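Quick check before the chapter quiz. The format below is the same one you will see on the exam, so make sure you can read both the input and the output lines.
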Amino acid sequence: MRQAGTYSGILNGGTSGRTGPHLLPLARIKKIMKRSGEDVKMISGEAPIIFSKACELFIEELTQRSWKVTLQGKRRTLHKEDVASAVIATDVFDFLVNVVSKSGANSEDTPVVMKR
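Here is the expected output.
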């Protein structure tokens, strides 16, 4: 009898409850994917899993770069300005430059609303 591979539990939703081993909610990811365009009607079960992992990696990378900025400022608390500096200093995050520059102009109580 063939044994299940390492990722078979991940693709089947895992064994640890409603979201499996994922740190981000798959239902929310699928909802965002469906809202991305009128042409998107059907989404396979594996696609949100891949997006979840990609988002986790993205968050980790941005956090690590932001933390380096925090340490350069000789602080131990990461602030939104650190994230903005990391985004501006990294070419890969150029698509976020407008988002962080707009959020810098807002007060802390005012949420940043992204328009499509």
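If your answer matched, good. The CA atoms of residues 32 and 83 lie 23 Å apart.
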